[in-house]
From TrEMBL:
GO terms for molecular function: biotin--[biotin carboxyl-carrier protein] ligase activity. It comes from the Bacteria. Keywords: Ligase. Residues 1-179 form the BPL/LPL catalytic domain. PANTHER family: BIOTIN PROTEIN LIGASE, BIOTIN--PROTEIN LIGASE. The keyword Ligase applies. The keyword Ligase applies. CDD domains: BPL. This is Biotin--[acetyl-CoA-carboxylase] ligase.
């Protein structure tokens, strides 16, 4: 009821579709674009998002803001990853965790990727394009060590429309709450759900160097705080292994 749903058979990328729509028309707040198939699905940091046609969910949500400062934009990552987390828990997906900044894991496998692209207006976020790729009924994956789907994990088939409705409901609730909450208020809940928190883990930094450390927390600007060795902390703005 809160959403303007646009269903497409195929498009390059639902994020790109919404971006183009923002340029050419004036789409309503909470416009949602869902595609059966993406021809050029995009992931974080210029990667490609592959998703088998008609088996999974690939969709993007447009949200407009009046007063969200750029400094606080990490609330979006928190809100969206917690919304997906809520729904997967509700569907009894085991051991769901959030891998910073916003991958959703079940056990050690990634089942959902999120690509948030913000359109800035000076110091504020004007619009946010929130793209979600959830692996649902796909069973073949190129790298089974890293990626999986709800079906592979639970053995059940999922109804894509039902799942989308639940996700949109949760996303709506979490997004509505954003403007009244600060990052600092939300962080403790998000941190509790972090993948490999306080466990010895291996990371790769921007130069490809490997190092060992413990995820301890996330800063209010969204940086990952890793303890390298006894009481030596470093903030990272990079991708962990
Ligand atoms: C990642 O984990 O790297 C993020 C993946 C995001 C994929 C979704 S699918 C719907 C939306 N459209 C895109 O092109 N990408 C996002």
């Amino acid at each position: 009821k809160h959403f303007q749903l646009l269903k497409l058979d195929a498009t390059d990328s639902t994020n790109q579709y919404l971006k183009d729509l923002l340029r050419s028309e004036n789409p309503l707040d909470y416009t949602v674009v869902v595609a059966e198939k993406q021809l050029n699905g995009r992931g974080q940091m210029g990667t490609v998002w592959y998703s088998e046609s008609s088996k999974n969910l690939t969709f993007s949500v447009l949200r407009r803001f009046d007063a969200l400062s750029v400094k606080h934009q990490f609330v979006l990552n928190i809100a969206i990853s917690m919304a997906v987390y809520d729904v997967l828990e509700e569907f009894l997906v085991p051991n769901v965790k959030i891998k910073w900044p916003n991958d959703i894991m079940s056990g050690s496998k990634k089942v959902c990727g999120i690509l948030i692209e913000n359109v800035l207006k000076g110091e504020r976020v004007g619009q946010s394009i929130i793209g979600i790729g959830l692996n649902v009924n796909q069973t073949d994956f190129e790298n089974l060590d890293k990626a999986s789907s709800l079906k592979r994990i639970t053995g059940r088939n999922f109804d894509l429309d039902e799942l989308l409705q639940k996700l949109l409901e949760r996303i709506w609730l979490r997004l509505e709450a954003i403007e009244s909450k600060t990052v600092t208020q939300l962080l403790p809940f998000y941190e509790k759900l972090l993948f490999r928190k306080d466990k010895p883990s291996t990371f790769t930094d921007g130069d490809g160097e490997m190092f060992m450390g413990y995820i301890r927390r996330v800063s209010s600007s969204g940086k990952l705080v890793i303890e390298l060795e006894d009481r030596i902390f470093k903030e990272f703005d990079l991708k962990q292994v």
